[in-house]
Queue: 2 jobs
Job 1
Amino acid sequence: MRNSRLSAILVALAVVAAAQCLAAAGRTSAPDVVLQGPAGTPVRLSDYKGKVLLVDFWASWCVPCKTSFPALDAIYREYQPKGLEVLAVNLDEQRRNADAFLAQHSHRMTVLFDPKGVAPEAFGVKGMPTSFLIDKGGTIRFTHTGYTGNVDVSYRREIAQLLGEQ
């Protein structure tokens, strides 16, 4: 009887371990890129480990970004008190273009800059805008390329899921 109980425990542990491996399959750690803050100070993505993070790549010339930028800021305002951080990473080569865009779009989310495009290359960005939802452990869990109005529902569902995880 003791051996059967031990066997049952070992089987249960194996099932849990297998489930965790399957859950982790296909997940990728977010690259630890260094971006520029508004004053030029370096900001490492790893500085946000332990938080749920939405990293959005955008540019002033990107037509869908003009819609997604205020929508993501609204999501930030809604979920920031619950632990979400949003990093809006601007990819304009000329800072004045980003500054002109930002002057027309009030925002509270953190805006960072990558005029050389190192971060989108590290993330494998294929279109604009592209957003990555990163869990508290630094793993990319969800990716969104492009922007349509109905994607906000997906963001909210995914953010709530990640905020609810330990």
Note: Confidence is low (pLDDT under 50) at residues 3-25.
Job 2
Amino acid sequence: MQTWRFTFQPKSSFATPLLGDTLFGQLCWAIRHHAGEARLNELLGSYLSGQPFCVVSDAFPSGYLPRPHLPLFSIAPSADGEADKRKQWKSKKWLPLTECYKPVTEWLEHCQSSNELYKHEIEGDKWSKGEWQKEEGRMHNSINRLTGTTGEGGFAPYAVAQSWYHPNALLDVYAVVNDTCFNLEELNELLQHIGATGFGKDASTGLGHFSVVSAETFILPQQSESTAWMVLAPCAPQQQGFVPEKSYWQPFTRYGRHGSLAAIVGQPFKNPVLLTQAGSVFTPTVFTLKHFIGQGLGGNGSLSKAIPATVQQGYAPVIGLNLSGVHQRITEVCSGENK
């Protein structure tokens, strides 16, 4: 397996978050359209048996990784937790890659909030506060295609949430690739196609466009004497043998739907799937170095009745963490509370 880092430059707003499992789904559709269904089936042949051809991360601010979903007091500058600073600490969601090898108990001291990533780069406009991303609602209205009007119900606008990135923003996406069956040239071409045609919802109206400005081999950080993994994409850790008392995660339910032509033919909705967010941390009974963890989901109609062979990325690229200091802090705090 080989890990690549792709750097994207947003060219428009996005109506769908750039999460790894969604990007993987669109990648599969791009393979089908460019190389044919036989090629896609070939690549997915071992996907559900722990041998994915590609595992894609979420898109992160270039040069940063997400803060792990660990108790704040366990990674704060002081073990006491300083309650008056917790609100400020919660906003610090991004850890510079250069700080990943420092003890995890010191990470929060180096994390930055979204408002600090591009601070003071553009003065005097709507981005002067330095946010790397803004959420806005854009108004739309349903049009009756037969009459060309809004219909008899009158003017009924609705808002669609869109994300706008800072003009100077670059996004990093990590892809773990099985280079025996899938190569960089093929993946780079497919990502360029997705960026040119649009990613996610409302791509046909100009949303979700990006360019791939660079692609390079990359070794994701692994701390000395690592004991746990932090995932960089939505992950399905169920029945994977992790120690629950030493794992920390933020769950969410993926209400997926088919893309491309399947979105407008038959039943577009998939069965819901329970996943964990990027930044979740999982401790195995025995730690070994890996490029990714998790599992492939779907197949045999378990995810979609409309397209029984549908699969879902439940794998995620990982970095290795040494949590010995974190566990020590948690133990000390819990022991003090029980006295």
Note: DSSP finds seven helices and 16 strands in the chain.
